[in-house]
Amino acid sequence: MRAIIQRVTKARVTVGEEEVSxxxxxxxxxxxxxxxxxxxxxxxxxRKILNLRLFEDENGRAWAKSVVExxxxxxxxxxxxxxxxxxxxxPDFHSAMPAELAQPFYNSILESMRSAYKPELIKDGKFGxxxxxxxxxxxxxTIELTSPARPTDPKQFSKLEKQQLRKEKTCSxxxxxxxxxxxxxxxxADPSASSGAEDDVSSDRxx
Length: 207
Hints:
Layout: E1 2-15, E2 18-23, E3 26-32, H1 39-51, E4 53-55, E5 65-66, E6 73-78, E7 85-87, E8 90-92, H2 99-116, E9 122-124, E10 132-146, H3 154-172, H4 175-185
Parallel strand pairs: 3-6, 6-9
Antiparallel strand pairs: 1-2, 1-3, 1-10, 4-5, 7-8
């Protein structure tokens, strides 16, 4: 599964002259489902889309808050062309999931987002329609996201999935919580020694 996620100040979807949906500040997600995608891919995408830190915090620090933490809106649009494979200069879409299977699968992704967040803040386009998507990109900020490839060995997949979940939980911890854990494992420092904390900028970086 592939997604293009854009941070927006506003976005809307129209079909002909009719406005289908619109949002204010938040993210617009263009989502392409492949013929090989499973429920695990859907779960991964929902988790990532809602937890990507694309927004500033209350102190203006960039890349600190997710759309959920900022209580912002999500506009999701199904886009099978993200599964394009070029044959010379001609796009081929055989790797995209057929519409009769993709529509219920896509709807289940929307329901998962609404269950994990606030239903009224999850908006949608019109599946299968010829849409015009009007996006006012904020930044611009555009993130490409692909669900991880699955190993053929189920045991290996389970191991990798657990590692990914542990990594995401570690990254999502607040600085105060992480600091308490690190402090509990370190010996008490000599108070007379200089820590050099004034020049340490590593706390601003991703773990």
